[in-house]
Amino acid sequence: MTGPGLFDPSARFERSLVILSNRGPVAFAFDDAGLPVARKTGGGLASGVRPALARSGGLWICAPLSDADRSVAASLERPINSDGTEVVFADVPEGLLDAAVGRVANEYLWFIHHGMSDLALTPSSDDWDAFARYNKTMAEAVARSAPEGAVVAVQDYHLPLVAASLAETRSDLATVHFSHIPFASPEAWREVDTSRRRSIAAGLAAHGGCGFHAKRWAERFLSCCELDGIDPPDTYVTQLAPDIETMRQHSRTADAEIERARLRQTHDGRRLIIRVDRLEPTKNHLAGFDAFADLLERRPDMIDRVVMVAYAYPSRSGLDVYRKLRDDTVDKVETINRRFGTDAWQPIDLDLEDNLDAAAAGLTRYDVLLINPVEDGLNLVAFEGAALNTTTGAIVLSRNCGAHDVLEGCVESIDPTDVAATSVAIERALELPPRERSTRATEARLRAEALSPEEWLDSMLRATVSN
Questions:
Q1: In whole angstroms, what is the distance from residue 461 CA to residue 18 CA?
Q2: pLDDT digits (tens, 9 = 90+) for 405-424
């Protein structure tokens, strides 16, 4: 396995850059008059890649994810300009997107790669065929739009099959892949139909290099290639930087000030345990709430002295497993609040609104930031919290996050499946001596701020130079 440190950092790279992803940096929605209105997209990939590409220049090709996106794609003859980045929508029919991305990528591969095979819904043969056609359609969009000799940086688990198609039609292009989520363990990978998993592994191996946020994800990929006798590509490991300046702007808005005022008024004098994540099964919300309940059970002296504020914004609400998680989350919070709450205090303050400004305000004020996903490719919230916090807050972080590789030593590390140990880690974080708390918070902030979009981008470019 190779890494970015093995490439010559002085090597000049003059080729044009194309980013290819399912979700792009901009999306459209119809206003009251029926006109499409642009907005920036959220999520870790868009928020992290957007500044990297904006500073270097390049083309971003993505799928149209809504009727408004498709209407814009049909009406424009030139790329969309989004903060200096040119954006092109591929011609992907809605039905193809639903089958390929919805049923194969999001309902199946997502859970296989995150170690939650029990939630994975097995796709039909027609769905798998759609997945291959979707990848070919996206490759065709690149072939039409990419400049001569460009580097095509393919992003994430939706698009593992692009490189082989491009090799047939645009041999002038170099391809590199980056996975923003974990890669499946060999045990989980064996559960995938042999021909399907071989096609994905071979598709990834056709790229000039494959990148991951953590060494363990790269090692899993190599093991899965070995499982089916696939000759692996070079791999590299680098972390995508958070867009800290944008998050700081969100933390200074009027809505953020309103949220800080609400926190002071509602929870004045109490310690704040904050969590900020999509309402998504891999984020492990229910275990986090159980750990907090365990803490209150063990330490009744903390009742009315500490509160958990959970910013859990909805995700993929069209899928049954996500709707059930929302219902289970509300039920769990209500049960814990009935059990421990008083007339003046509720232990869990659950916010299900998608309000980035409010969440950013919470990150500035936490005493403890709880991040306990079952597995997570990186987790930008860990870095955003470390950079934004103004109260020398402590971080309780799952070892199964890529971010843990960066922050280990200045966080309370946990096994996210161990509720009792998570409870003890929250307790330790609340009771850290002031000097140690300050030292850890400062070190975590410095490590988060040391990451840069340019280094992540340069790692991909160096991977192509080495091949």
A1: 11
A2: 999 999 999 999 999 999 99
Element (H or E) spanning 158, and its range? none
> What is the widest separation between alpha-carbon atoms in the chain?
69
H helical segments located in 206-319 = 215-227, 244-250, 254-267, 285-298
Contact 219, 1 (CB under 8 A): yes
**Closest to 373 (Cα-Cα) out of 165, 82, 143, 110:** 110
Residue 435: count of CB within 10 angstroms of its CB: 9
Topology of the domain covering 4-241+453-465: Rossmann fold (3.40.50)
Q: What residues have CB less than 8 Å from 176, skipping those under 6 apart? A: 151, 152, 153, 154, 207, 208, 209, 210, 211, 460, 461, 463, 464
User: 3-class DSSP state for residue 467?
Assistant: coil
Cα(273)–Cα(338) distance, integer angstroms:
19
3-state SS, residue 299: coil
How many angstroms separate the Cα of 329 from the Cα of each of 213, 288, 342? 29, 11, 20
Confidence of residue 13 (pLDDT cuts 50, 70, 90): low
Residue 5 clears pLDDT 60, i.e. is over it: no
Q: What is the mean pLDDT of the chain?
A: 91
All structural domains of the chain with their residue ranges: 4-241+453-465, 244-450
Q: Which residues pair with 273 in a beta bridge?
A: 308, 368
CB 143: neighbour CB atoms within 10 A? 15
Looking from the CA of 59 toward its CB, the CA atoms found within 13 Å total 21
Distance CA 74, CA 69 (A): 9
* Coil/strand/helix, residue 350: strand
| Identical fold, 4-241+453-465 and 244-450 | yes
Please tell me the total number of residues recorded for the chain in this structure.
467
When pLDDT is averaged across residues 241-247 and rounded to a whole number, the result is 89
Q: Are 371 and 401 in contact (CB under 8 A)?
A: yes
Q: Is the pTM of this model over 0.90?
A: yes
In degrees and rounded to multiples of 5, residue 80 shows phi and psi of -75, 140
Architecture of the structural domain at 244-450: 3-Layer(aba) Sandwich (3.40)
Name the pairing type of β-strands 80-82 and 348-351.
Answer: unpaired
Q: DSSP code of 401?
A: B
Can you tell me which residue has the tokens 């139909």? Answer: 193
Structure tokens at 137: 């359609």
φ/ψ of residue 254, rounded to 5 = -60, -40
Q: In what order do the strands lie in the sheet with 85-89?
A: 80-82, 85-89, 59-62, 17-20, 151-155, 174-178, 210-212, 235-237
